[in-house]
Write a structure and sequence with these properties.
32% of the residues lie in helices and 25% in strands. The protein is an alpha+beta fold and 254 residues long. A hairpin with a 7-residue loop joins strand 8 (95-98) and strand 9 (106-110). The radius of gyration is 20 Å and the shape is globular.
Length: 254
């Protein structure tokens, strides 16, 4: 569990972001968290799934970037190579946290022990006058928007779950040498149940703006083919020859 402290231009006036630290972080993110307003853009590159937050068990929306842990196939030679970059990457290493001074307010927090920070070299977080850098200003705006986006995502997932549209799946990989690998913990849209919704339920989803997101998530599954191609280009001696999507019989969505 990351311990966050409030970012302060007094306490952290000399703080700098190490060169390439952001790319290194992105390169290690096999699963990237997204919010519902990002679904449409994210679906242009990544297969999108529901997954469970490891800390509290709540639902989150996730973009899969690799079949291997600690790997992101969309970071190539230290550079981001995709049409869209999720907000969760754009805001790193800054996080939204509850204000220690005001119980109902939020502020920007950092993990002071993170190796992305330095006092010697890198891009300054604050200028000499204590004003936020361009990067921090952008991250701050995105994090402030995430307050609303997190609430909208909660409403989206709650409605989808209430309609019974979340289905547990496993990804089964077969490698060139005959080895198999199973990726569990992923959930997608149950298309059959979605097709059986009443007209009233479909109208409600459409009015909420959620119908487009549901269709985008369904179509995003085809991006597994892109991941497969990228994996085989990157791992020429460990190619995947077959990928199957199986309904997980030992897991339920509730």
């Amino acid at each position: 569990m990351i311990t966050l402290v409030e970012l302060s231009n007094a306490v952290h006036k000399d703080l700098k972001l190490k060169e390439n630290s952001l790319s290194e972080f992105a390169a290690s993110q096999q699963i990237m968290r997204i919010r519902v307003p990002e679904v449409g853009k994210s679906a242009t590159n990544f297969p999108l799934f529901f997954s469970r937050n490891q800390h509290d068990g709540s639902w989150v929306l996730s973009a899969l970037s690799s079949f291997e842990p600690q790997q992101n196939l969309f970071v190539e030679n230290g550079r981001w190579n995709a049409i869209y970059q999720p907000t969760s990457l754009q805001t790193f290493p800054f996080f939204l946290m509850q204000s220690p001074k005001h119980e109902k307010s939020y502020t920007i927090g950092i993990n002071e022990s993170s190796n992305v920070f330095s006092k010697d070299a890198g891009e300054a977080v604050f200028d000499d006058a204590g004003r936020p850098s361009q990067y921090l200003s952008k991250a701050k705006s995105l994090l402030e928007a995430d307050i609303k986006n997190d609430l909208e995502t909660y409403r989206f997932v709650s409605q989808v779950e209430a309609l019974g549209l979340i289905k547990a799946i496993d990804l089964q990989l077969v490698f060139e040498d005959g080895r198999t690998q199973n990726i569990a913990g992923l959930y997608t849209i149950d298309e059959d149940k979605m097709q059986s919704l009443s007209n009233e339920q479909m109208i409600t989803l459409n009015k909420s703006g959620y119908l487009v997101a549901l269709h985008a998530m369904l179509l995003s599954i085809y991006q597994l083919n892109l991941l497969l191609r990228k994996h085989n280009e990157c791992h020429t001696h460990d190619k995947i020859t077959q990928l199957k999507i199986e309904v997980a019989k030992d897991r339920v969505a509730s």
